[in-house]
Amino acid sequence: MFKTPFFIFILSIPLLIGIHSNAIATQTNHSFPISHIAAETDRSAVFRDLENYQVTFEYVNDNFIATTNFEPILNFGKDDNVTASFLLQIALETEARWLMLNIYQTIITNKQEGYRTDLLSVYPSIEQKFGNGQLTLGAGLIARGNYGGEFIQSTYHRIVHLDPVELPYIGGNRFGFILLTGYEYRLNEGEYSILGCFLRNSLKVGSGPSSLRTGVKLDLLNRNLIHNCILQLQVNTGYLFTYVSDRYISPIFDSGNYQALLGSIGFMEKFQIAGWISLNQYGLHQTHFGATLTFGWNGSRISDLRELLYP
Fold first, then answer.
1. Is the CB of residue 131 less than 8 Å from the CB of residue 153?
2. Are 232 and 264 a contacting pair, CB within 8 Å?
3. Which three-class secondary structure state does DSSP give residue 306?
4. What domains does the chain contain, in order, with CATH numbers?
5. Coil, strand, or helix at residue 16?
6. Could you read off the pLDDT of 274-304 as tens digits, one per residue?
7. Between the CA atoms of 218, 220, 224 and 229, what dihedral angle is there, to the nearest 10 degrees?
8. What is the pTM of this model?
9. Exposure string (b/e) for 131-163, b if CB count within 10 Å is 16 or more?
């Protein structure tokens, strides 16, 4: 496991340099009724319709801590199966919709059967208001094999003086396609809360675990700015059904009920920080912890566990 994904930040620097826009808070599928004024500036033809942008980094691990000193209050995780994941997401808002590029890397180990592999997913997606809810569509590539997971895990273990996890990559490299579809329906929206239900299917052909996730989620938030920031608490619970996988992935993902809790604080025109915990996220009754950092955040799109959990 690796808890300081500097390589993602380094890889994202060229992308951050190429994106520039004045963020303007608008009401969209994830909008808050917040009004603020931003000065208009000249934009290039490519970005003339761009209303907002966000760049998000996420880190997930099955260990909240790298020591057993805090047990039994905080348990030292298995450091196995889905041991760590990373996400880089670039999101652009234009004409009341969000266009996104998503890059996931997942480090997988199977100590019982003695092997490791990595999953790498790259796919664009779109979020569009549809009826009294939001439609999500995405398609791209997924690959299983050796994509640097062993190096990342070994380097971290060496730095913090943990025992190395010496497992070979087996099964070679395998490539496939990912097709993502989802819909969230808003059951009720009040002044300080949003209640919704959702259905999300991720079909992976050729590699990776396909899954169907359904459930309900509740957002509690302060819509009135306090010191120019927004607080959010989200509860997400439902059922995960995993299907269509290969022999090296099948032992790592299963089906079952899951629960997740997220808390975030966002500073207008600057960034948003979120932390979350999930129970049985992958169907193996393990606890996972996640943290996200979003730049360019202006309140028009809040953190959502539907996309932070593995797609």
1. no
2. yes
3. helix
4. 6-308 (2.40.128.140)
5. helix
6. 999 998 888 888 888 899 999 988 777 888 8
7. -110
8. 0.79
9. eebbbbebebebbbbbbebbebbeebbeeeebe
